[in-house]
Amino acid sequence: MSHNTFGHLFRFTTWGESHGPALGCVVDGCPAGIALTEADIQPWLDRRRPGQSRHVTQRREPDQVKILSGVFEDERTGGPVTTGAPISLMIENVDQRSKDYSDIRDTWRPGHADYTYDAKYGVRDYKGGGRSSARETAARVAAGGVARKVLGDAVQIRAALIQIGERRIDRSRWDWDEVHRNDFFCPDAQTAELWAQDMDAIRKAGSSVGAQIEVVVSGVPAGWGAPVYGKLDADMASAMMSINAAKGVEIGAGMQAAALRGEDAADEMRLGADGQPEFLSNHNGGVLGGISTGQDLVIRVAIKPTSSIRIERRTLTRQLEETTVSTKGRHDPCVGIRGVPVAEAMAALVLADHKLRAAALEA
């Protein structure tokens, strides 16, 4: 199986399966001399960890990260720092229930990667989906913790859930602090309460629902990215589309740009009070010609409903026999909820790579 690595100068490779003994990643290209401990990475994993509310999978995983390589105790700083060598991170799986999947070992679940994995490899890990499971994203979040250290405090990456099913937030009530106070990473307290009711009904029905995530990045200077095939927004879109269940990505105005007129879509400029260019709008989401403008990067990701549901669906077996399937086990009724920290991590990983690319050009 190829293509388990993402990035160029700053890159990471994930490994492991949903129901294996562990999963993790190897981060390559991290500069030397950056202070890094497990405590720098763990808070991001804690935000993604399953079982934290009734609205997500009840699989109980502590998701404790272990740094296996790539750091050294620096006597000058009194703590571990990166050495420039590959950083290996491991997260043990402790709450697998493989027996939940015995009934579907020869049945393709609609909406899952079961059929495509069989078509490509002739074999698939039916226990939790193996590499196709969203469990793999824990490794991405761990790698994202390293990427945030490379970016430093000047770059702020925040994400929120702005839609579940047909119900969207009211942007006039947007409060970033509220994202940390409810179970949905929702910036609108009133909508979060309604989502809780919606999710109870969805879960009771044995169904699932989709969602939309918005990522906002502040502090990226103008000049990151490259024209044509190294575009910052293209890399960002690729990163977001690699997230399990992602079906659409927008940058800035996104699809709504098609409804704008040229005079409205143009992000007009003037000279700011600090003597630097200042934009009067941000329809382009902080990127022009594939290069950052210095404005906030704005990315939205559409996440489809979780495919594992209790409602019977028509399908085929590996022997091409028609049948129906109802998926048992513990699953997120809305995978988009825990997708919020994953989207943040992918944004961090892209930006760390582009920061190093920009630095290489200046050297």
Short description:
This protein is of the alpha+beta class.
In terms of topology, how is this protein built?
Blueprint: E1 5-7, E2 11-16, E3 22-28, H1 38-48, E4 65-67, E5 71-74, E6 79-82, E7 87-92, H2 114-121, H3 137-151, E8 156-164, E9 167-168, H4 189-205, E10 211-218, H5 232-241, E11 246-251, H6 262-265, E12 269-271, E13 277-279, E14 287-288, E15 291-292, E16 297-303, E17 313-316, E18 322-325, H7 339-362
Antiparallel strand pairs: 1-2, 2-3, 3-7, 4-7, 5-6, 8-9, 8-10, 10-16, 11-16, 12-13, 14-15, 17-18
Let me know the largest β-sheet: 5 strands, antiparallel
**Residues in helix, %:** 10-25%
Shape: globular
Gap from first CA to last CA: 36 Å
**What fraction of the residues are assigned to beta strands by DSSP?**
15-25%
In sequence order, what are the helices and strands, one letter per element? EEEHEEEEHHEEHEHEHEEEEEEEH
Radius of gyration: 21 Å
As residue ranges, the low-confidence spans are none
Number of continuous helical runs: 7
Strand order of the largest sheet: 1-2-3-7-4
Could you say which structural class the secondary elements and strand pairing correspond to?
alpha+beta
Number of strands: 18
| Mean of pLDDT | 92
